[in-house]
Structure formats: structure tokens, C-alpha cells
Amino acid sequence: MSALYFRNVDASPRDAVDTWPFEALATVLDRGLVDDWRPVFAEIRRSPWGPTARRVERYLEFRDPDGVNTLFTLAIERARQDHERADRDTAAERVRAAVERSGMTKAEFASQVGTSASRLSTYLSGKVTPSAAMLVRIERTSNSP
């Protein structure tokens, strides 16, 4: 970390980012350097819809547009895309495991859950994420005798 310090707040740049008051976060965005931003980026990657990412977004709305705004906006977007991709992969894995557990063919399984074989294929590949209701039905069907 650089020699950045927080004035008039009860926090240190060495504290966990999610414990920083809003003013400390603003200080890092306004006066910090790349090394100061790293823990903020790490927190955004860890929780892209969490309080830190939301506070960064709110603060960026009021800053004059510049490279820092662009950099943090892109970091938030990328972190959210990565998490959404991971969520789709997790859903696809759950569908694949359910079909496997069922012992049925994919066509039989699709019929049992009320969808087509081609739609089930899109769930299995991760191209389409099933609705919550469909995922529950898929998992319930895989566990039934």
C-alpha cells in the first residue's frame, strides 16, 4: 500500500475493505493508486453485488467521469459476469447430476420434468439456465424412486 491514509474516519487502509466507512472508500477512489485499489477490486470480485460494490457504484455516479470511473465500472461489470457464468455452470452441473442420478435417458427425464429433450440439452450445456421452479422439479424428479 502507498502512503495513503484516512483522515477524520476511524479506519485504516489496512483494515478489511468491507469495514471501511464510505468516506474512506471515497478517499481511495479519489486519491489512491493502483496498490490502494487492489483490496477494493478483490472485495468487488468476492462479492460483486455486495455493499462495497454498491457503494463504489453510488460514489462513481457523483464523480466527474474519468479513467478511475471507467476502471471501477469495468471491474464491477466483469466480476458480475464472472459470477453469473459460475452460477450458470453450477446450475448446469446440478442438472447433469440430476439426470445421472435418475438413471433415465435424457429424453425420458425431459418428459418427466415437463420439457423437451432439446431444452434439457440447453440446460445440460449451460447455454440456458432453468427457472427456479424447473430446477426444483429437475432435482425432485432425480430423487424420486
Description:
The protein is 69% helix and 0% strand. It is mainly alpha-helical and 145 residues long. It folds into two domains: 17-83, no CATH class; 95-143. α2 (34-46) packs parallel to α4 (67-102), α4 (67-102) packs parallel to α7 and α5 (106-113) packs across α6 (117-125). The mean pLDDT is 94.
Gap from first CA to last CA: 58 Å
Alpha-beta classification: mainly alpha
Unreliable spans: none
Count of the domains: 2
Number of strands: 0
Radius of gyration: 22 Å
SSE sequence, one letter per element: HHHHHHH
Tell me the β content: under 5%
Counted by DSSP, the helix tally is: 7
Q: Determine the mean pLDDT.
A: 94
Tell me, what's the shape?
Answer: elongated
Q: Largest sheet, described in full? A: none
- The portion of residues assigned to helices is 55-70%
